[in-house]
Amino acid sequence: MGARDPEDLEALRAASDVLGLDALLSADELAVRDRVRTFVDAEIRPHIADWYDRAHFPVELARAFGELGVLGMSLPGYGCPGRSAVEYGLAALELEAGDSGLRTFVSVQGSLAMGSIHRWGSEEQKQEWLPRMATGDVIGSFGLTEPSAGSDPSSMKTFARRDGEDWILTGSKRWIGLATVAQLTVVWAQTDDGVRGFLVPTDAPGYHAHVLEPKGSMRASVQCELHFDEIRLPASALLPGAKGLRGPFSALNEARYGIVWGALGAGRDSYEAALHYALRREQFDRPIAGFQLTQEKLVDMVLELQKGALLALHLGRLKDAGTLQPVQISVGKLNNVRESLKIAREARTILGGNGVLLEHSPIRHAANLESVRTYEGTDEVHTLILGEHLTGLGAFR
């Protein structure tokens, strides 16, 4: 067998699918994957290094994502696409092959903000917000994490008190995606009746947001700190169906599911960049892809990508069947992010010194995955979720 053509990406991908996993996907699933992949190739890849370097979030992509049908992708009704969990997962994988920050936009908008409204909102709230959010005409954010309440949201200090028929919201949130470009934030707050969710317009008097910067990760996206200074909200701002931490946790599980797939995209793109480079880069009179140590690295990457894809697909089939459990999502989030980060780091080594340049994706993916590893539950949190499942003993306190 002669050396593979580094410019023949389809042949390289076919060879990398050692287990023939594409055969496990339906025609509709493959069509969704290919449509999103084409969008990423045309609209994200040519610009992402510049966006990342300038710490620029291309807010104009919101409507483009709406046209692509990836906002609230698996939600039925209210103008939402209503696609399957596997189709959404494949879309998340392709988006994160472009950049984790841009897949995060889709997750915050669709899984966290829209998902909370769809599951816990009143009919009036759903009709008012979801159709415009599905098209990207309205951007939403999700306020749960606080400066002193990250992995332990039960200790949140943001509080909403009753004042006649209204609510008065006071407190702070931190690491809130999209908040400075959003028109609506789903805010979770303590009340005298437990944790409740509120729909807070970002132009409400007393709503203050500023971008957290400079960052070394997720630079092509927006994360913010929020302050609520006695914001007065009408009774209609309350999400009526959500009471207690079950409300935000249900949204987090939706976002975590997307990460199971999305992280594989960052890992796959890092691997492909390394493979392409190794086939072209010559040292000692031969392509470095022909050296044993390089091949070992590439093989280890493909093994983890193939196993991760099987895991993600299995979870997606369970989700479509309505039997997926939160602890199973923890398996996927913990494994696939951890392994994809290892792949991105190892891919960078194949590129040598050139690998620190943003024209090559692995260094950017590695930096982004440090954030993905932390949000929606750290490695430690998911480890303890699994530990409690195995032993029956909670170890969080």
Automatic annotation (TrEMBL):
Keywords in alphabetical order, please. Answer: FAD, Flavoprotein, Oxidoreductase, Transit peptide
Under Gene3D superfamilies, the record lists: Acyl-CoA dehydrogenase/oxidase, N-terminal domain, Butyryl-CoA Dehydrogenase, subunit A, domain 2, Butyryl-CoA Dehydrogenase, subunit A, domain 3
Enzyme Commission number, as recorded: 1.3.8.6
Its domain of life?
Bacteria
Q: Name one Pfam family in it.
A: Acyl-CoA_dh_1
Q: Which reaction does it catalyse?
A: glutaryl-CoA + oxidized [electron-transfer flavoprotein] + 2 H(+) = (2E)-butenoyl-CoA + reduced [electron-transfer flavoprotein] + CO2
Hey, which pathway is this one from?
Answer: Amino-acid metabolism; tryptophan metabolism; Amino-acid metabolism; lysine degradation
Q: Which cofactor does it need?
A: FAD
Q: Matching PROSITE patterns, A to Z?
A: ACYL_COA_DH_1 (PS00072)
If you read the UniProt record, what top EC class would you report for this enzyme, in one word?
A: oxidoreductase
Q: Per the database record, which ranges form the Acyl-CoA dehydrogenase/oxidase C-terminal domain?
A: 243-390
Per its UniProt record, what PANTHER family does this chain match? Answer: GLUTARYL-COA DEHYDROGENASE, MITOCHONDRIAL (PTHR42807:SF1)
Q: What is this protein called?
A: glutaryl-CoA dehydrogenase (ETF)
Naturally occurring in which organism (per UniProt): Microbacterium lacus
